[in-house]
Amino acid sequence: MRSKIIIRAAVMAEQQALEAVQLRASLTNDGDREAVLANPDAIRIPLEQLAAGRVFVAELNGETLGFSAIEPRVDGQIELDALFVEPKIRRQGVGRLMVEYCAEVARKQGSTALHVIGNPHAENFYLSCGFEQTGTIQTRFGVGLQMRKAL
């Protein structure tokens, strides 16, 4: 399946559909469900992020499988800002493929690392993708894992 997946820049008209993917994915995590339902504004893809070409869609035969987003950091590095996969196709390599894609984009933009503030329930996923934990940070919804993948 992975060899047939296309990753491309999202278009503005996809904002709501991608936010729906984010909501479905977020609600499947027991630790996130309550916070997401109490804070629906957390499910949002900024229009400026879409317009700047920093949101990427993974699709297979025209069906959206998930999306990722990156943001530049003040230190010149790149942050993985979002990564969501349709719950029905998790653990089939889509998330890993999107991380690899974002890492390549970051490398092409001159970043020496891809950073992420990961949800603790995703720690093993990020470690398996080559990230290392560099610390923790308090986020709006609790402790986040500061992680870094050398490029």
Structure description:
The chain is of the alpha+beta class and 151 residues long. It has one domain: Gcn5-related N-acetyltransferase (GNAT) (Aminopeptidase, 3-Layer(aba) Sandwich). It contains five helices and seven strands. The protein has helices at 15-27, 30-38, 47-51, 94-108, 123-128, and strands at residues 6-9, 55-60, 63-72, 78-85, 113-118, 132-139, 142-150. The longest helix is centred in the last third of the chain and has 15 residues, at 94-108. The chain is globular and about 35 Å long. The chain starts with 5 loop residues before the first strand and ends with a strand.
- How would you classify the helix and strand content by structural class? alpha+beta
Q: At the first level of CATH, what is the class?
A: Alpha Beta
How many domains? The number is 1
β-strand amount? 25-35%
In spatial order, strands of the major sheet run 1-2-3-4-5-7-6
| Count of helix runs | 5
Mean pLDDT value:
94
What's the Cα radius of gyration? 15 Å
What's the CATH architecture name? 3-Layer(aba) Sandwich
Set out the fold topology.
Blueprint: E1 6-9, H1 15-27, H2 30-38, H3 47-51, E2 55-60, E3 63-72, E4 78-85, H4 94-108, E5 113-118, H5 123-128, E6 132-139, E7 142-150
Parallel strand pairs: 4-5
Antiparallel strand pairs: 1-2, 2-3, 3-4, 5-7, 6-7
What's a quick, concise take on this entry?
With 151 residues, this protein is an alpha+beta fold.
What are the salient characteristics of this protein?
alpha+beta; 5 helices; 151 residues; 32% helix; Aminopeptidase; globular; single chain; seven-stranded mixed beta sheet
